[in-house]
TrEMBL record:
Pfam entry (one): DPBB_1
Keywords associated with the record: Signal
Signal sequence segment: 1-23
Name of the protein in its database record: Expansin-like EG45 domain-containing protein
Domain Expansin-like EG45: 26-136
Organism listed in the record: Cinchona calisaya
Length: 136
């Protein structure tokens, strides 16, 4: 029993040094119209920077996702676009403010401002990886 206790302590110690970030892969497009008003009426979002997103109904979960922030990075796009992620491969942190009825699975809809930060001007849809931001 003492050996099992020591093994457990050693495993806890080792895993405390391992940091794993689980990224979700999906597609992103840009809002075609205005973002506000949205389905998350009570979400405190600065409309000044407008770095917001809408998620699929399965991710939205009746508003539970309102206010959640995601760290999003462009991975690639259709082969016809040479540099879909722009030159700098920047990332953006967005806040969920709406539900996207046309999104499926882990696809998200980004505001024009957020999309333009990570995608080339000629990109219409990009492949992304995103994870929950630690700044929630």
């Amino acid at each position: 029993m003492a050996v099992m206790g020591k093994v457990g302590i050693v495993m806890a110690f080792i895993t405390s040094f391992i940091h794993v970030t689980l990224a979700i892969s999906g597609h992103a497009t840009s809002y075609k119209g205005t973002v506000f008003p949205s389905s998350c009426n009570n979400t405190k979002v600065s409309q000044a920077n407008n770095l917001v997103a809408a998620v699929s109904t399965s991710m939205f979960r009746d508003g539970y996702s309102c206010g959640i922030r995601y760290y999003v990075i462009c991975v690639s796009a259709e082969p016809k676009i040479r540099y879909p992620c722009g030159d700098a491969r920047e990332s953006v942190i967005v806040t969920v403010v709406d539900v996207c009825q046309s999104c499926h699975g882990f696809d998200i809809l980004l505001s024009k401002e957020a999309f333009s930060k990570i995608a080339a001007p000629n990109a219409e849809e990009i492949f992304i990886d995103y994870s929950r931001s630690s700044t929630n």
